[in-house]
Write a structure and sequence with these properties.
The structure holds 2 protein chains of 2 kinds. By secondary structure, chain A is an all-alpha fold. In chain A, 79% of the residues lie in helices and 0% in strands. Chain A has 2 domains: 64 residues, no CATH class; 226 residues, no CATH class. Chain A is built from 14 helices and no strands. In chain A, helix 1 runs antiparallel to helix 2, helix 4 packs parallel to helix 10 and helix 4 packs parallel to helix 11. Chain B has a single domain, classed as Winged helix-like DNA-binding domain superfamily/Winged helix DNA-binding domain (Arc Repressor Mutant, subunit A), CATH 1.10.10.10. In chain B, a hairpin with a 2-residue loop joins strand 2 and strand 3. Chain B starts with 5 loop residues before the first helix and ends with a helix. Helix content of chain B is 60%, strand content 17%. Chain B is built from 4 helices and 3 strands, in the order αβααββα. Chain B has a 3-stranded antiparallel beta sheet with strand order 1-3-2. The chains are: A mainly alpha, B alpha+beta. Chains A and B meet through helix 2 and helix 3 of A and helix 2, helix 3 and strand 3 of B. Chain B: InterPro entries: Metal_resp_DNA-bind_regulator, Tscrpt_reg_PadR_N, WH-like_DNA-bd_sf, WH_DNA-bd_sf.
């Protein structure tokens, strides 16, 4: 390849750091300017040019992510997340209820279904309120659940120290749901978007954030991590293809990390099985990246907004 | 209103003389700043993208020269008003500084 061809290819690789929308508008003219100002015979960008292009890309990406033009995307993301959040409260609660009932049944203890169905019932009510568009009532109900969870945690902490901290998922889930619903615009819009085009990744997310059931059935929490984290990454990879989906993932990350983050850390530190989280993490990163890159076709908008 | 950063001020000043393409803006900014400011492509196009989004500059036309795209940018009315306001602010500040320096040098430097 000629020197100019090499130089152009290397410049294009650096310009690849910019968002797709920006590149569509400016890539060719940027390249023209870079080639016009490069000395004859040069085959690669100078360090200063490379730094300028990468820093420019960071500036443009930050402005697109948080600038005034990103406000509609954030609004849609809050609506979408607020519609997803009740699912992430309900599904793990159902998983826990079924798992605990299974343990009680196996051990011959009398079933206390009413006790264990209280949280799933509360989660179902939250989902119905949210998806029928009763935003304020849903937000108030989510706050009630969050406060109840906080009081329950405080009681456990008083009785048994901070032993129960890794099981704080219901508190994180209900508090995140309450916050999202408080600031959401129209929950019906979020629910419609969820049903229309983004149901798959969120459904996967909802099912995956309920390890208690699988843990009880298989008694293999670590294997669940290996299977669940890559699936979670793939679901996230689908979600990141839209600007609102990417932002919704950020808003929902406390709910997911409260489960998988704490569990992975406890598996690493307490159980002494560093291989499992390492394998799960590597698989997740690979699959998530593959899904994201697959969505960067000409018609995709993986890096817009 | 937030003061303009120097590269932004110089880009708008370059475009105040008429539509320019990227290379033209870079060359004009070097001239305006007496060789002190040399805009690099990453800085220039990040600024142009922001100024376009803010409605201060707009794409004027495109040309193909030697098979390569050249897009011209022009100052909008909003951009001209913003540049005028910034130039006025800098001018007032500069005048205040000069006036005080004259007063300072008067008694100190005498009439020599």
């Amino acid at each position: 390849m000629s020197g100019t061809g090499d130089l152009e290819r290397r410049y294009r690789r650096l310009i690849g750091w910019y968002p797709r929308e920006f590149r569509r508008a400016h890539e060719d003219e940027m390249l023209t300017l870079l080639l016009e100002t490069a000395e004859d015979g040069r085959t690669g960008p100078t360090l200063r040019e490379a730094a300028d292009l990468v820093l420019g890309a960071v500036r443009v990406r930050l402005r697109h992510a948080f600038g005034p033009r990103s406000v509609p995307h954030w609004r849609r993301a809050v609506d979408l997340s607020a519609a997803v959040a009740p699912l992430l409260v309900l599904v793990p609660a159902l998983g826990t209820a079924v798992a605990v009932a299974g343990v009680e049944f196996a051990s011959g203890e009398p079933l206390s279904l009413l006790k264990w169905l209280a949280l799933p019932g509360a989660g179902l009510l939250l989902l119905l309120l949210a998806w029928s568009g009763h935003r304020r009532t849903a937000a108030a109900w989510a706050w009630v659940l969050a406060v109840a969870e906080a009081l329950s945690m405080a009681r456990h902490a008083l009785l048994g120290g901070l032993h129960g901290f890794p099981t704080s998922f219901p508190l994180v889930a209900t508090a995140t749901a309450a916050l999202l619903m408080t600031f959401a615009g129209d929950l019906r819009d979020g629910a419609r978007a969820l049903r229309r085009r983004q149901a798959l990744p969120w459904a996967v997310l909802g099912v995956l954030v309920q390890p208690p059931l699988v843990m009880t059935l298989t008694n293999q929490a670590a294997l669940w991590d290996v299977a669940a984290l890559p699936l979670l990454a793939a679901a996230a990879g689908v979600a990141v293809r839209s600007p609102a989906g990417r932002r919704a993932l950020v808003l929902l990350s406390p709910m997911v990390s409260a489960t998988y983050g704490l569990r992975t850390v406890s598996s690493l530190v307490l159980d002494g099985t560093p291989l499992i989280p390492a394998v799960a993490g590597a698989l997740s990163a690979g699959i998530g990246l593959a899904v994201v890159l697959r969505g960067r076709g000409p018609e995709g908008d993986a890096v817009r907004g | 209103m937030k003061p303009l950063q120097e590269p932004t001020f110089l880009i708008l000043t370059a475009l105040a003389a008429g539509p320019r393409h990227g290379y033209g803006i870079v060359a004009d900014v070097v001239e305006i700043s007496a060789g002190r400011v040399r805009l690099r492509p990453g800085t220039l196009y990040a600024a142009l993208d922001r100024l376009e989004a803010d409605g201060l500059v707009a794409a004027d036309r495109e040309e193909i020269v030697d098979g390569r795209v050249r897009r011209y940018y022009r100052l909008t009315e909003g951009g001209a008003a913003r540049l005028d306001a910034e130039a006025g602010r800098l001018s007032r500040n500069a005048e205040a500084a000069r006036s005080r320096l004259r007063a300072l040098r008067g008694p100190m430097g005498g009439t020599a």
